[in-house]
Write the structure tokens for this entry.
Amino acid sequence: MDNIVLEIGLALALMAFAVLTANKLGLSNIPFLIIIGMIVGPHAPQFGVFDFRFIETGSLITYMGRIGVLFLLFYLGLESNVSRLIKAGRSILTGGSLYIGMNFSIGLGYGYLAGFPLRETLIIAGLTTVSSSAIVAKILFDYRRMANAETQMILGITMFEDVFLAVYLSLISGIVLSGASSFAGVASSGGIALGFIVGLILLGRWLTPLLNRLFNISSNEVFVIVVFACLFLLAGLGETIHVAESIGALLLGLILGETEHSERMEKLVVPFRDFFGAIFFFSFGLSIDPFTLGGAVWLAVGAALLSLIGVTISGLIVGKRNGLSPVGSLNTGFTLLARGEFSIIIVNLALAGSLMPVLQPFAALYVLILASVSPLLAKETDRIYGFYTGLVKRFESKVKDSGDERVGDDGADGEPER
């Protein structure tokens, strides 16, 4: 089909159907967008003028998806500026460290036991560590939990994950994209990437007064063009030294989030974030052939189960340390269980670095499972905790009855047990 506009229109219609269905069911639209992308693609048929293979526009959709990543990370940086992260407090620092440490260790161990090489194992560890900010925010908003006691901890850990993600992506992109294999090569590429992120943040904080004057633009048209020019330039410059372009976007968001124009930027960026972000998830699904997922099913299911155990335990520990109720602690873990946009960003690094092809279907299934399960578990936290306490009470009752029976048997012939 030569009509590229019609083909893009078909893609947008499919995405509209996916997000409308998700909205109707009250669920995150991320798994729906990925699934609808997986259903169509090169393996799909053509019906008259409607070509569901998207051969003509595949590369364009992929590029628009890359733009979506930049807007997602840029907006996240605007919301999680450096000052807010510093003010988050010691409790979030310790809670975030515990949560990330436990889940990252689970990913490392799982990758090692599954027989993956070092670079692939590091990618898997990243996949199992970082929650989806988009799904976490949707859960808190949809279930009206913004005023809950555990919400501050959830948001704090999410922001702490952003810092971890920035450092992790900077280091892993240097390792994966540069192809460094020796310790010296890994240290060098990782050091350059880390120096880039730290240096840029320090420079940005120093230049905040200048940035306030630079972006003091009355025209929205000129304002948007200047912001987007900075976004694409910094993302592109970062990629030249093997720092993921998404990290350049995140860094710019963190820096500009310190300025007095951050709220204006957020409002103007939201439509671009939502539109191109949806294309990103759709394009990810479009790149996956569902007929090749078979080899990754059990691998993804195993990782999802381990992640569920990891976030439940870490949520209970973090909650107890910070005085949360058992239900609040459990809800912390269930809410943070969601994996989404960042897992896909991480696996895209693996694809760019020509790592093992199984990582893509593994990540797709892993994200689909947890992006679907997390909102359901978080919604039913009270019932799950009630079911658990009911089981404990019944078990304790049986143990007590069994003990009473033994005491009765021992005293049947009038002689106490010696």
